[in-house]
């Protein structure tokens, strides 16, 4: 809605109004000035007319006087009648003259005669004076200037016979006139004939005796006989002068003039001779405005003029008149200007209002336009955005790595209308080939997929759906894809199309199966891992429980696997494990489970068979399969295994329990000698528990000083004497009694306690050896076992050196025994440590030598002194020709390397003999002595125990 403007005067209108008022005022002023100037000019003109009239009257009068005087000059003697007849017409034409006189000088002598003569005409005549304005007989004086003739007589008769000199001013005027010969006026005086209040004056002109010279003042004074005079009643004379001019009368009608005439050069009241009109009234200007603005009053006209030698002053003024009296032109001009200004301002206001309204309208329209423009811009931007979004979506669809299909929503075929480049890339079908096809073409003949039903249902029900499908490329190869199908609605909400996004999940499927494999399978052998084993065993237990069948769980651990692994490296170990796995699988049925627990441990689940029951033959067969010779990197190995068997339900009814019990049984099998099997018995469990118990106590054993050392002598086969001892640790357990090292060394290795325990052994062995030396029992070589953990110890050399220092034992009496597998694990590092030890001065020996044949080649690199042939070889040298050959070749090789050879575990004389025959240097074993306490060995040394000489000489 258009807003209505509130009235607010515009600046332009206000300015116009103010300007208009100012111009009107100026106009008024100008007109007033003109009016006033006109009045002034009129006034001046009229004033001048009056001055001229008065001047004219006076001039005329003086001329009349001069004419009368000329009469006397011309005739010399003028009779009264002549005078009368001459004056009469003159007076008629100059009414402003009161009288024309002839004054005659009469001496005192002539007076009586004169008076007498005059009385003839004028009875009672006497020369008189004016006293207090009234005639009185003149006193005697030498000369009289008597008013002799006077015309007209009427009205003036009172002055006849008066001595003119008795009038004031007469003397001076007369004297001046006599001296100059010119008319001379008196000052104002009261005329004798005056009956009113008017003042009069007299103009005198001398009459000289005819014929007398008048060349200078003296001559003139001598020639004087009288004078002619014109008598004026001042007011009448001026009034008549003024009224004689007709023009003046016309002008009078316009202006009221105040006329004052002064017989003086100033304007004193005494000199006022004539006044007409109101007294002079000058108005003051008000509020700083000039008075002429509102009043017509020209400045009074002043005129100074000369009347027969007397200065006269005339002032003409006019009373102030309100300007409207003269006319309203200025006012009308002002009003017209004002009206014009108001009109102009109003017009301007209207124009301004209009332009404001227009501006307002323009602003409103601009705002509307802007808003429309913004809407339009927003609309365009939105369209552009939509367009860009559409383009983006199109490009996104085109660029999508996933296959996208758009099909028609028309059943039953839902023909393809669009496929993106990814579809072409993935399927091998071009867009031209795919468009117009039924979606089914991607499934080939593989229509028996649950996902296809879901896709069909999705399309029929026009809803979103998802399915995993097997698809086939143009070349027939399979690929898996995840289908997401969604209906696309048109503007009316009707489903017009379907969009199908296919995620190629072939790789994911592959990963899944790989993951599944990794999760459940052993990476090396492909056998079931622990987790799958547990599942399978659970299933087997459930099944067995349901049908009342037993299950055998076999825990298989390879003997000497560590040796292979450590000597030949992990790769060889892996080959061995893979081979064993295959053999295990081959040894059982497909339905049986073979799992790898890690390392060289395997678990087999053997459910009862339907055709035949479970028997130890199966276990035997497994062991035989494993025991088959195996060639790795050109070396033939004989691998054996130890097997523990747990039976469901007798030995447990959970997978964990069964595996644990099989494991315990396997330990037992190992304990009683490798390469056999044991069935689990509850007693085994107790032993296992005992191991746990031992492990707990082992932590405190060192502190509690429960360890002790036993010493087994080493005997020289040439001399039969004890040349060294091997320190073997024993644990005096407070409850279990003497615990052999096989029961705790392994545990100490596992938990790291072997390091402080080993250090204690070295220290104690050194001290003991020193003690024997000090006791004079010979300088024996003290052999000490070093575990793998100790060997890995950073400060091993320093630790041994400190033990030697502590015992003050020469280093050559200490022998460090290292196992073959220990030094072979990292040959280079081992060589470094061995060299350091060698530098220390201790003896070095390789224990258990022979369990890894291939290590022979390294021997020459090791700075060792002694080789100890493993008991297992010695054990069978008399019955196994292979072992005998091995031992013989070890001795030979060692000697070729300048090493001494000690055979361990010599129990029989036959063994001894064989060794002696094959140049073995020393033996150690039960044949000569079991490991014994320090005291026992001391006694042995003291008594000089040795091999019987006959044995040595046989
Ligand atoms: N059947 C039979 N056995 C014989 C015969 N002669 C000696 N033996 C036994 O063979 C073992 C020799 O020690 P080993 O091979 O180093 O084998 C040792 C060694 O590896 C380890 N061991 C013992 N004491 C220590 C020790 O202080 N430190 C470390 N690291 N290991 C030790 O424990 C293993 C077993 O020690 P022991 O039970 O004392 O068993 C000893 C000894 O009693 C024999 O004629 N017949």
UniProtKB/TrEMBL annotation:
Residues 389-436 form the PAS domain. PROSITE patterns: CHASE (PS50839), EAL (PS50883), GGDEF (PS50887), PAC (PS50113), PAS (PS50112). Its main location: membrane. Residues 74-274 form the CHASE domain. It is found in: Membrane. It comes from the Bacteria. GO terms for molecular function: cyclic-guanylate-specific phosphodiesterase activity. Keywords: Membrane, Transmembrane, Transmembrane helix. The chain crosses the membrane at residues 330-348. The keyword S-adenosyl-L-methionine does not apply. Pfam families: CHASE (PF03924), EAL (PF00563), GGDEF (PF00990), PAS_9 (PF13426). Residues 463-517 form the PAC domain. Coiled coil: none annotated. PANTHER family: BIOFILM ARCHITECTURE MAINTENANCE PROTEIN MBAA (PTHR44757:SF2), DIGUANYLATE CYCLASE DGCP (PTHR44757). This is PAS domain S-box-containing protein/diguanylate cyclase (GGDEF)-like protein. The lineage of its organism: Bacteria, Pseudomonadati, Pseudomonadota, Betaproteobacteria, Burkholderiales.
